[in-house]
## 1
Amino acid sequence: MHQIAVPPILQILASMSAVLDKAAAHCEARKIDPAVLVNFRLAPDMFPFSRQIQIMTDQAKGMAARLAGAEVPVYADSETSFADLKARIAKTIDFVKSFTPDRFEGSEDRDIVIKAGGTELKFKGRQYLTGFVFPNFYFHATTAYDILRHCGVEIGKRDFLGGL
């Protein structure tokens, strides 16, 4: 489970951190207030860029903790800049990396219970990872990428995929 879960999550976290660098450079080169991009949303009823990154990192840290049988850390969700968001990603990478493969042993059958929007969701570890974490993590990472791309940041698929 560790091999299936951790490397792809770390790959995208790292690539999104690099994408944030490109977004910051884009703003600087074009004299755009970075807050415009940090708060940008593609539609009025969707979360802004900053919240997409927050949820993406929440999925990553929640996955690592739950599959390892550990407590999920709580982040304040107070990031207002690219630097804040990069720090959140870095903190999440460190947290995910802190779990060795042996901590994930037997996690495919571990009971996982989470609350989402007032509903209690129950999973076995494998179902939680493949049917909940991965879809949510990639959805929010892709949405964050799409917001920046829509705003003119020069990024492409290789930026999203990172160091392959």
## 2
Amino acid sequence: MKKLEKTSAKTILSLQYFIYFGVLGIYLPYFNLYCYHLGFKGVEIGVLSSVKTVTIIMFPMLWGAVADRFQARRPIYVACNIVSTAIWAFYFLTENFHMMLIISIFYGVFHAPLISFLEAFSMDILGREKKKYGHIRVWGSINFIIVVTVVGWLIGLFSVKLVLVLIFSGSLLQALLSIKVPNIVMKRKHSFADQFNVIFEKRLVVFLVCAFLMLVSHGAYYGFFSIHLEALGFGSAFIGFAWALASISEILVMIKSDSIFKKFSINNVLAFSFMVAGARWFFTAFAESGFSILLLQLLHAVTYGAFHIASVLYIDRLMPEEAKTFGQAVNNSVTYGLGLSVGFVVSGYFFEKTGSAGLFMISGAVAVAAWPMFILYSKNVNKNEMNHKTSQQ
């Protein structure tokens, strides 16, 4: 790919991340609020939320496999953008729970794979500059912070129903711009079916188990951190600032991703992130001063920012060209789908039993469990690869 074309492709992908996470910044904090204002019960809101998680577990892998099998990543990505936007429009026509449940299911089928496809596009377009992935992905985090703040203010001025309009508008813009995503078709040495079994290789399975544990440990943070802070006596302004500080630290890591991965290997960054996550949750359980809590929030740079970038690079390194979309889809399904789902359920159970402090201690233990598992297997892999190279000489 020529330099000018590559720069243009990076710009298009940056815009895709910018809009995608902007829409997410509306959906995550405010869609449930919209449902609450419709008079839905807590159980009904929970069911609608769980639908999105279930679709993240199932459908990215399905669409990823189809895309790699038929080398149709771009057409499927464009189609999923257009169809999911069209399905969202049906929310304007009903306020009935059962109808909204049906809409949510079909919307999730087509919206869930988008982020996996974006990760795969990024790896292809960056080529030898894959360690600069954070430079593209950072625009999503920037817009997420902007949108969360601005939309909250707009809802206060107008109505929570504005959420539907804003998500539809953002999705429509992303769908229109998705047509500009370059259609890169990699040369194949093998068929997708021949390479599918790589997903069962021990090295990849161990990584996915460790990544799953990492996201399980984050269930307490995403589900109960605000409640934990409120119980300690902090107000909404401090809670909002704590969340924003974590996102800002994540952005700084993404901007510096190229420098970080030039100095440290992907394996070392992953191992370090597991260890830091364990320490972060453990100390969060005991932190009571505002200063110590904010200091711990800066560790989000490692436990999410560095971990996420390293995960995408690790999957790209292990998966063959014929199955890269599928690999990123499996990673997202196992971590942000299944991992967070289990994390939310487990956290909800232990929150009732132990309180938020005990919950974060358990989360720390879960994250730390991934550390020796990944370290030990990484050493074995390196040794085996070295022996293999020696035997070939």
## 3
Amino acid sequence: MNFLLLVVCLCTLAGCIEEFEADVPAEETSLLVVEGTICSSGLNTFVLSRTTSLNSQNDPQKISNAKVSVRGSDGSEYATEGYNGQYYCWIDTLYSDKEYWLHIETDGDVYESEPQHPLRTEGIAELSGVQHTPESDIDILVTTDEPADTTKTNYYLWKYLETWEVHPVHTTFLYFDIPSMSPVYRPNQFPERGWKDATDETILVGASTNYKKQHIKKYRVYGIKRNNERIYYRYTTLLNQRAITKAEYEYQLARRQAASEMGGLFTPLPSVLPSNIHCLTSDKRVIGFVGCSLNTTERRIFLDASDYSIDHPKIDALEWHENCDVILCCQIASAGMYLCVWEDHGQVAPGLVTAWTTREYLDVTCQGAYIDMPWYWEE
């Protein structure tokens, strides 16, 4: 049980599974939705839910009482442990000459995905950030290793985890001490920098159709706006790559269209998306696609703002007070403001000048950042 709770926490933090919230017509409610990939040498996660009607305000119903396992043509079976609609199992090794499928038993019905040979994924030969003009966004480009078979189209799915450095709008080494009614030197009251993470949920797929020898080179996976805080200082992305079949590629494209254009005249309803999962005990339709992989590959890059033309607007959040006195300083500090500037000109006009701001402009944790440097940051 402790292992299961640990697994749940790890997967929640990693954001490795994206639940597909599909709305379908009222007459096609309670369809099974399955998300997940069978993969060698790792923790496999499968998400099970049921659809709601198109006009429903409720989230998809999570299925927590199903029996789920990964089965192989060699007689192997990997049972899962379930928690809150998510099912987990660890698979050590898959074999390319065997077929594997997902087996599900729920609410009196049995479902299985089509048996598949696990695909091998090439490595990532190059990952780069390119800005074509000073005014353009920064494109993240990927080049795969040369594929083993250069005569057939290769299909890929990418996911990425971002981390970027965050600095405060203002810094201060001063602190106004109300009891003594005077400024004191306090250099470490706020962290100098912090970090944020994000996992993008956009469906990113690509095909080698238009590439020489079916070798994808400098393919634009995604872009970063030059005025986005992600690139203000230092940025890193960890790109995960998985080879997929043509059928899964077409499913992901249709799913992306359904998600971005729901309700469009020519948009396929989620209930008619291509699927490789079938009900063995009835004619019920299923939403989802289960892929099968021998491995995934990944690569990390770092981008420094100094290498690009970045549009970083400067914010002045200081509140200035001229001809200030210590009584007013006490009142300002009592209101939750922090001292940033103290210029005492004595008898020379304008006398005491102070500047103040609120904590949100001084403390990066107020921006949602954490302050423990990631272990990979100094690579």
